[in-house]
Specification:
Oligomer: single chain
Number of domains: 2
Radius of gyration: 20 Å
Distance between the termini: 52 Å
Mean pLDDT: 87
Largest sheet: 4 strands, mixed
CATH architecture of the largest domain: Roll
CATH class of the largest domain: Mainly Beta
Helix content: 40-55%
Length: 175
């Protein structure tokens, strides 16, 4: 009954739509009710808008395709198992987050998680389960979410530093 591309779009944006529905109910309660229900309605409306904004950021972060490898998150440890490489990155040791550009060896951009000793883990932006990294990256102190999403949306010719620990100098040209 519903065209597949519309169904896929609605499914992808389902959290945003649910949050906006929650906000709409709260807005309705806030405008037509009185007393404690009115206050609850205004609170629901503001909470719904906040949840919708966060959900929209997650949708912008998630890639459309299923790329090579699988990303898993266990406590504060990210594991990437790829067809040719892989590895583990402990978030407590992470000092820099970069986005590497498309290259002949990497057909899609990749997140580069860099530890204090210079070791790094590259995770393609379209790997299965990469959406779990959004919450991981939000936990980094001082990260600018909108900047991260804007760097991800644009094609860059060079490696871009998205986040760096406040007390570390940037690493460049890691091989």
């Amino acid at each position: 009954m519903i065209r597949p591309e519309i169904k896929d779009g609605l499914w992808r944006w389902r959290e945003v739509l649910a949050a906006l529905g929650f906000a709409a109910v709260g807005l309705w309660w806030g405008t037509v009710s009185f007393g404690i229900v009115q206050w609850i309605g205004w609170g629901m409306a503001s909470l719904g808008v906040t949840l919708a904004i966060t959900a929209a950021q997650k949708v912008r972060f998630k890639s459309d395709g299923d790329g090579p490898g699988v990303v898993t998150l266990d406590e504060r440890r990210v594991t990437y198992l790829g067809p040719l490489d892989g590895g583990v990155a402990d978030l407590d040791l992470m000092v820099q987050l970069d986005l590497t550009p498309v290259s002949p060896t990497a057909p899609v951009p990749a997140w580069r998680l860099i530890n204090g000793d210079g070791n790094h883990l590259d995770i393609p932006t379209n790997a299965m389960g990469v959406e779990a990294l959004f919450d991981v990256f939000l936990a980094l102190p001082g990260i600018k979410t909108e900047y991260m999403l804007s760097v991800l949306q644009r094609t860059r010719p060079a490696q871009m530093t998205v986040w760096m620990a406040p007390d570390h100098k940037p690493y460049t040209r890691l091989h």
